[in-house]
Specification:
This protein is an alpha+beta fold. It contains eleven helices and 19 strands. Helix 1 links the parallel strand 1 and strand 2. The longest helix is centred in the N-terminal third of the chain and has 18 residues.
Length: 392
């Protein structure tokens, strides 16, 4: 059976669901296909941080690396507003709390890096400023005396990663989108000016046809590109997170660190989420390619390192039991900038991934929908053009 659509979206994470919802909202006939379940992978297993400041991985190599990463700041600014508006726009109950974020420093070298980073971010229009220990005592007295300064961004915060993607999927369905889960893409071919997408379930194989196709497939992005003969380089990462028992309100902010991998936040139900990019071990096939169907393995060095760093800056954590640690996967690109725009050499195909993918999901979706509808995106996407990598 072959059915026709305006757009087929590949991937049922937050980005894919947001894109399908926006297309359907605008009157487009859209099919979303997901190989597993909605929100099963990166979008549902990350810590839900809304990082609008540059993250540690973007500044750890120095000021010039930070300056390069800041080219994505227009997407960050757009995402800050979109996350604030998202529950009202889609008519769904999405937990979004933008109560401010702190990137903290423990020594003079880290303070200097924070100051340089903040100058760069402010030049792009981010509301961000350096605060001293006296102001930290006023707004974040839970932090250790080791913290001497911080960069404070009032629009940062957190979203519930477990529910945001499914809420956008419900919004897409209500707007008229069609969603198929447990449906794997097995072929992507452009014929007669349209995309022919072969899909398979446990029961059958089918084909769908569309004017355009969106790759919102996370760690499967490179594989989808290869399927259509395009070079979309991504680097998969497996990252660890930990959650504690519920405790009374302690941390109202998103906290990250200028000197290492750390993020801290407290969910509405009281659990504290500890992360920041500590690595886990990806399982690989014999040929060295990542096996995304296999569960990545926690590393004891990451568990202990993340815990030690968290307790150092938030001493109260030493008395709060951890109840679970897990691994989520994500992708970055070779130059650390997002990959957003038309797929090179493939008319009617579009892709988005990389960067702070959960944070930027709404921005990515809005840009993709503009391209699909032949409108000029609000953000200049030139720096994120997938064509910058050429061919293999």
């Amino acid at each position: 059976m072959t059915r026709g659509y305006d757009t087929i979206v590949i991937g049922g994470g937050l980005l894919g669901c947001a894109t399908a919802w926006m297309i359907a909202r605008d009157g487009g006939r859209v099919l979303l296909v997901e190989r597993d379940q909605i929100n099963q992978h990166a979008s549902g297993s990350n810590a839900g941080s809304l990082h609008f400041q540059l993250e540690y991985r973007m500044i750890e190599r120095g000021v010039e690396a930070a300056r390069k990463a800041a080219e994505a700041m227009p997407l960050h600014l757009q995402a800050a507003q979109l996350w604030s508006d998202l529950p009202g726009l889609c008519g769904q109950d999405i937990e979004v709390k933008q109560t401010g974020g702190l990137m903290i420093a423990e020594n003079a070298q880290q303070v200097e890096l924070l100051e340089r980073k903040t100058e760069i971010e402010r030049s792009w229009g981010l509301d961000n400023r350096i605060i001293d220990r006296a102001e930290i005592d006023r707004i974040a007295p839970y932090l250790s005396d080791r913290v001497v300064a911080a960069a404070f961004c009032p629009t940062e915060g957190k979203a519930d990663a477990r529910t945001a993607g499914p809420a956008l999927a419900r919004a897409a369905l209500q707007a008229g989108a069609e969603i198929k889960t447990r449906t794997e893409v097995t072929g992507l071919v452009r014929q007669g000016g349209r995309w022919h997408v072969s899909v398979a379930t446990a029961e059958s194989a089918q084909r769908a046809i569309a004017e355009s196709v969106v790759i919102a497939a996370g760690v499967w992005t490179t594989r989808m590109g290869q399927m259509m003969g395009a070079h979309l380089p991504t680097i998969p990462l497996a990252l660890m997170m930990t959650v504690t028992q519920r405790v009374p309100k302690l941390i109202p902010h998103l906290v990250q660190h200028a000197g290492g991998r750390l993020s801290l936040k407290q969910a509405l139900d009281g659990n504290i989420l500890i992360g920041g990019g500590w690595p886990a071990r990806l399982i690989r096939h014999r040929d060295g390619e990542p096996n995304f169907d296999a569960k990545p393995e926690l590393l004891t060095t990451s568990l202990s390192g993340n815990a030690d760093m968290a307790i150092r800056v938030l001493p109260d954590l030493s008395r709060i039991p951890a109840i679970r640690s897990w691994v989520g996967t994500t992708t970055v690109t070779p130059d650390q900038l997002p990959l957003v725009g038309p797929v090179p050499g493939q008319p009617g195909a579009f892709v988005a991934t990389g960067g702070s993918a959960f944070t930027l999901g709404p921005s990515f979706a809005q840009a993709l929908v503009a391209l699909i509808e032949c409108r000029l995106p609000e953000t200049d996407l030139q720096a994120f053009d997938p064509a910058r990598y050429g061919r293999q």
